[in-house]
Amino acid sequence: MISVLFAILTALSNGTASVLQRRAALTVPDSKAIHLSLIGHLLRQKVWLAGIGLVIVAAVCQAVALATGPIAVVQPIFVIELPATLLMAGFVMRVRLPRPVWFGVAAVTSGLALGMASAAPEGGSATVHGAAWVPALILTGLFEAALIGGALATRGNPRAALLGLAAACAYALTAALMKDAMARLDDGGAAAFFSSWQLYATAAAGVGALFLLQNALQAGTLVAVQPCLTLGDALISILYGVTLFGEELRTGWWLLPELLALCLIAVGCVELARSPLASGNAAPPARTRRVE
């Protein structure tokens, strides 16, 4: 229950941060794409700094969630970050949510429930044993290089989708490293935690993920980025959980409802990302003056 609670808090913080970062990224000129100067431009915007503050809050909550639960349980819960954020934004901005948004919320939440019930992730160890990190890091690096190379060869929404998937892979790697680092804290205390390479690799992977996400949001629409980011993070995290931590999922005929769950989540993410609330551009309806 603790891991689920903090996973939900992480999703709420990350979802709100994504909307704020998307709003800031809209002001970045194309000439700054895939350049470090993009970060310098964003640092001068308060809305982006507020998003970064929420990213830090999310990181703390995620660390607690991963320290108390399997990565295959914690990371998929993050698919609720976009629907939860839109519902919150609609309430705060006093904007009536249209029917497609409610459809998206229902699709994502029902897809998550169906997927978690069907896969029923369980078991696994708290740490990664032996040299299992070596092939995992090599394969991850090759996958990231292919995605970034493909993104540089295109523009617009295809680039945004590829960079969104690259960011998702980096966030999933960050979560796996963070879980391994937190286990060192439990086993050996603060000394083992701060001397573990996983802690510093977590920071490096997190910075890389943030950089890739900013470029993805700058390159295209949220509709192109969000499904790749949401589903990619969940699926790659589950892959890390199974291969590195030995977590187990149901297979066989259970794959059918699991695939249906993925389809529901993907459709819901696309529908929600189309909403003006997702880009932070929605405004409350104007009041009309009654004519006596």
Write the layout of secondary structure elements.
Elements: H1 2-25, H2 37-42, H3 46-68, H4 71-74, H5 81-92, H6 99-119, H7 133-152, H8 156-195, H9 197-219, H10 222-244, H11 255-273
Describe what this molecule looks like in 3D.
Helix content is 74%, strand content 0%. It has 11 helices and no strands. Residues 284-292 have low confidence and may be disordered.
**Strand share of the residues?**
under 5%
Order of helices and strands: HHHHHHHHHHH
User: Rg, please?
Assistant: 19 Å
Structural class: mainly alpha
Give the overall shape, derived from the CA principal axes: globular
Terminus-to-terminus distance: 57 Å
Structure summary, number of beta strands: 0
Task: Report on the biggest sheet.
Answer: none
Count of alpha and pi helical runs: 11
Average pLDDT number = 81
Q: Nutshell version of this structure?
A:
The chain is mainly α. The chain is built from eleven helices and no strands. The C terminus is likely disordered.
Features:
292 residues, mainly alpha, 11 helices, globular
